[in-house]
Fold each of these.
Amino acid sequence: TVSASASRTMKGLFLICTLVSLVGFTNSLVDKGQLAELTETYQQMKEVLEKLMDERRLINDRLSELITTFINVIDPTTALVKKFAAEYFGDFLPVEVLMKKMKDIMVEAKSAIDKTNDDFGIKMVKLQQRMKKNEILINFLEEQQAEL
C-alpha cells in the first residue's frame, strides 16, 4: 500500500538524515587541528611515561641492590667488630645488639621501599592501560577523520 511505502521511505530518509547529522556532529567535535594536537599531546605523555618507568626501574634496581649488599655485609662486619671490640674493650660495647638493630632497620627500609615501588608499579600499569584506551580513541578519531 501507499502508506506502508511512504512509511519505509520516511524511515529511510530519517536514517540517512540521522547518519549525516552524526557525521557532521563528529566532524565538528574534532577537527584536524584538534586531532593533531591531541595526537601530539598523547605522544608526549607516552614518552614521559616510558622515561619515568625506565628511571623508576633503574633507581629501584640500584637501591634494592645497595640495601641487599649492605644487609649481606652486616653479619661479617658484626663478627669483625665484635672480635675487635672484645679484644680492646671487653664487653663494654654492645656491638652485636647495635649491629642487629642496624640490620633490622635496613630490612624494614627495604620492605618499605619494595612496597612503595610495588604500589607505584600498580599505578603505572593503570596509567598505561588508560594511555592504551586513549591511543585506541585517537586511532578511531583519525580513521573517522580520514573517512570524512
Note: The chain has a mean pLDDT of 76.
Amino acid sequence: MLPGQEANSPLPVSAILPYAHRMAESMQDAQNRVLALNSDDRPFFYEPTAVGIRATWKYADQKWLGFFGAGVRQGSYDLYVTLDPDDGTWEFDETSADAEATVNADGLHGEKKWQSGSQKSFTLNKSFALASESTDRQGTHTGQFFGYRFDTDEIKQPLIDALTAAGYSRKKGFFGKLFGG
C-alpha cells in the first residue's frame, strides 16, 4: 500500500506507469522536451525538424597568428534524430566536419575531414599564439590563448534523457531484434 492510499483501493496510474510500457509522447511534445534543454550556457543547440530533431555544435571557429605562421580551424558536429512516435523509437545519424589551413615558412597547408555514422569523440585543444580569435555562441573572443573542447556525450546524453522521459527508446537494428539486444 502506498502512503495516502486507502485499504482495498486500486493503485493510482502514476504508481504503475514507471513499471509498465507506456506510449511515447507525440513528436511535438518530445521535440518540446528537447528544445527546453537549449541554453546560452551550452556550446550547442537543438532545433526541430520535420522528422525529429537536429543538434548542432560548432566547436571550433578559430584564427591565429604566431611567430612563424598563421592559421584557421573550423569544426562542427550535427546529430540528426529521427523520431517514430508510433513505435516510440529514435535513431541517430551523425556527421562531423573539420577543416584546418596554415601558412608558415614551409608554405600553405590544408586539411579537411568529414565523417558520417556513429561517433564517439572527445577532443581538447589548447594553444598559444601572438594573437588569436575564437567565435562561439557567446560571441567572439580575442587574446593569446585559444582552443576548444568537444565531447559527443555532452550533446547526446541530455537528448537521450529527454527522449527517454518522453517514452522513446533507441531503435533496435537487425541483430538487436534478432537477439533481443
Note: Residues 2 and 11 are 8 Å apart (CA to CA).
Amino acid sequence: MKPIAPLLLLLLCLCHCTKQHEKNTAGLTAFRSYTEKGSRTLRLADSIDRSKEFPPPPSPFPADLEERIGEIVKPAQERLQAVFSKDETGMYKAYLRDIERFKELKSPEESGKALEHIKATYYTFIKAAWKKAAINEKEYQLKIINALPENLKKNIVFDPEFLGFKISGGARKPDQDPPPPPPPAPEPLKCVDGKATIFEVPYTERIVGASATTMLEQGRALFVTSLSFPPGGIAWARNLAGTDVTIPGTFADDKRLIRIKKQFEWRTAATAISGGWVSVAETGYQSHWWNWDFSIKVVAPVIWFSEFKATWDLGYEELVEKRYLLNIRYGFATYTSARTLPIAVANGWSLLTIRKWELCEEEPQ
C-alpha cells in the first residue's frame, strides 16, 4: 500500500523516551545547507533499488479521518468566514498572505520566526473573530472524539483554543518506563557496527502545492522535510536506514542469536496553520520494522495553528534468531507529511541521529 494516496496520511505509535538531549547543531547546519541547495547530497548506494526490502508499517488511522473532521467542523468554518467577510481592517487578508509566505522559507529557524510573527500580529484579531462567531468548542470537541475509533479516543489532546488538536496511536505508551535490562549474557562471539554498512531507502511523494525531501547525512543521520501550501496539496517524505548484514557472510548461519542494541536522538517539529480550512501535519520514527514507535498527527481544523516539537534520546534492544534477517538488517526510519485545503500551510521536519547500532552474536541460553 502506498504511504500516501489522496485522502490518506500515514501514522503512528510511541516508544519509551528518557531525557532530552542537547541540540544537534551540526545536524541542523547540514539540514539547512541541504534544503537551501535543493538537491540530494551525501547519498549512499543510490544505484541499488532497495525500495521493496522493508514493508511499510500500517497506519492506525482511518483513511478518511481528515474528511470526517472536515465535515464536522464545516459549520464552524462557515460561521467564522461570515465574520471575516465583514472585516474592514485588512487583517484577515494580511493573515492569509503571511500564511502563504511559509512556502518560501528554507529552514526550521525561518519557520519558527514566521510563526512567532503570526502569534504576535494576529492573535488578538483571531480571538475576537472567534468570539464573535460564537463557536461552541465543547460541542465540536465531542463530535471529533466520537468520529474516532475506540482505540484512538483516549489519545487525542485538544489545544486550549480554536479546536486545534494532536492525536497519536500505536502499541507503545508515551510515558512507559524503559524495559528492564536483559540478564547477563555470555561474552559476544562477534560484534559488528550497523553504521559500517548502512544504506538508505528514501521515499517522497507530492501532490499539487507541496514539496518533500529526504537525506542521509554522513552515514549516521536521517533527515526528512515536508511542506504543503496554497492552493492545497499533500506531501510525504520517509527515509529508512538498513544495514547490509548477510547470513551467511557477516555472521555464520548457525543456532547462535543476535542481540541488537540501538541508541539514537530524535528531533522533530510539525506545524499545521489554518486560514479557515483543515490543515494537517505529521511526524514519527521507527526503530523496528513492523510499526511506528511513535508518530503524531497535528490538526488545525478551523483557524490558527497547532504544533508539536520534540527532542528525545531513545533506545531499543532486541534478541533474535539469525533466521529473522529482516529484524537484523532493519535499522531506523523517520517520516513527516503535510496536507492542506485550500488556504492553509502545514510543514514538518525530522532529524534522527544514530548514536549506537550494535549487532552481537551470543549463545542461546
Note: The helical segments are 25-37, 65-84, 91-100, 108-133, 137-146, 150-153, 325-329.
